[in-house]
Design a protein that fits this description.
single chain; about 400 residues; alpha/beta; Rossmann fold; 7-stranded parallel sheet; 20 helices; 13 strands; transferase; transferase activity; Glycosyltransferase involved in cell wall biosynthesis
Length: about 400
């Protein structure tokens, strides 16, 4: 069989490495869903193979092939034209991509939030424990040929970092003052397949207001519980639910405290913790029927530098987001009229916003097709097409730091 037969009519082979992120239909999280949707979009132009932990109910990846870690994954990387890594990448597979001289693409979000994880802070040496996140991240910065960012803020932070470690040279700036050959911005959004799946299901009311993402230490989930108590005391008939309340090692303490708060405030009939496995189609039914999503965070550098992936729900389903004023995500909500920014977050101000939504005084923003990955990934496709058309002699390697040092 010819090489072209293996490569589906000579299409470039792109590997999407999910690292430790699950692609299970019932446990996939924000980063996993983003990389899965990007893989689906890529699979319409390239031969795509996705390396992810094994699971009983993998999410639909369209034409992309799912590969479990191990020998087959190693062979897949060896035969690929490009490998994409995301948050918390697998260090061993990074080194495999380096060894096989394939193109390396990194969505290099700095592991800031991990420094607040209870599992890290509980260690005798939290700084040393954090190295298991920081080490692969730094290695990816060193060896990637191209980088992907989720927002202009993240792009600015990445470029400053690349300059500091010597990955940007005068030659780069001469080639392109905007560094388009080195960095592509692919904003948080949704793919065509995700849109089709969402449109295929109806609306099922779980609660009026949903907390749609994880319950992390840098958020303020208790404020939603307290706000629901304020609404009850005002005589407003409303309900809320935390969609992903199945405890994990790092969310169990917060979920336990929320459970106690619901009991102490006698809000059991108003606030629901959804702890059962939830498929994507079920999730779509609940979010489509909600009046608004709530995402209140604490002030902190994680929220200053990162775009919240749960904004996908608003762009896809057209349901307003109620958010705090801290960081780039609130700036996006304000600029694009996606919902309500609480400039002074408190149970009372949040309750006022929820009541306004319930009363119909807040417009639904509507679906935003400019956030479709098939549209927003176009500049990255341009780079990838040009890169794959370049001979190995010309491309591999664009010198990384360690290669410059050995010359």
């Amino acid at each position: 069989m010819t090489d072209c037969a293996h490569r589906h009519d000579c299409r470039p082979i792109v590997v999407v490495d999910a690292g430790s992120y699950s692609l299970s239909e019932t446990s996939i999280a924000g980063v996993g869903l983003r990389l899965a949707e990007m893989a689906r979009t890529l699979s319409r132009r390239y031969t795509v193979r996705v390396i992810a932990p094994p699971c009983a109910d993998p999410i639909d990846l369209d034409a992309a092939e799912l590969v479990t870690p191990g020998k087959k994954a190693e062979k897949t990387i060896a035969s690929s034209d490009a490998v994409m890594f995301f948050d918390t990448p697998n260090r061993h597979r990074i080194e495999l991509a380096v060894a096989h001289r394939t193109r390396i693409i990194g969505e290099c979000r700095a592991p800031i939030e991990h420094m607040s994880y209870p599992s890290v802070l509980a260690c005798s040496d939290p700084t040393g424990e954090h190295q298991r996140f920081l080490g692969p991240h730094r290695r990816l910065l060193e060896v990637s040929h191209h980088f992907i960012c989720r927002s202009q803020v993240e792009r600015a932070a990445l470029i400053s970092t690349l300059c500091s470690i010597g990955r940007i040279t005068p030659e780069d700036i001469t080639r392109s003052s905007t560094l388009d050959h080195l960095v592509s911005t692919v904003p948080v959004g949704f793919g065509q397949r995700g849109l089709e799946v969402a449109d295929a299901v109806g609306r099922t009311h779980l609660a009026d207001f949903l907390w749609t993402g994880g319950i992390w230490t840098f958020f303020e989930p208790f404020m939603l519980v307290e706000a629901m108590g304020v609404l009850r005391d005002r005589g407003v008939n409303a309900t809320a639910a935390f969609l992903h309340a199945a405890p994990t090692e790092d969310t169990r303490p917060a979920i336990n405290e929320i459970t106690k708060a619901i009991e102490n405030l006698s809000l059991g009939q108003y606030v629901h913790l959804h702890t059962k496995p939830l498929t994507q189609s079920e999730r779509d039914q609940y979010v489509k029927a909600a009046h608004a999503y709530v995402c209140i965070a604490r002030p902190g550098v994680e929220n200053e530098t990162g775009t919240r992936l749960r904004l996908r729900d608003t762009w896809l389903h057209g349901v307003p987001t109620i958010i705090d004023p801290w960081g780039v995500s609130s700036e996006i909500v304000a600029r694009e009229n996606l919902g309500i920014v609480l400039h002074d977050p408190s149970p009372e101000t949040l309750a006022g916003a929820l009541q306004g939504v319930k009363d119909g005084s807040v417009d639904r923003p509507g679906r935003r097709m400019e956030r479709l990955y098939e549209n927003s990934m176009a500049p990255f496709f341009k780079w990838l097409d040009a890169s794959c058309a370049t001979s190995d002699r010309d491309l591999r390697r664009r010198p990384t730091n360690e290669q410059r040092e050995t010359k």
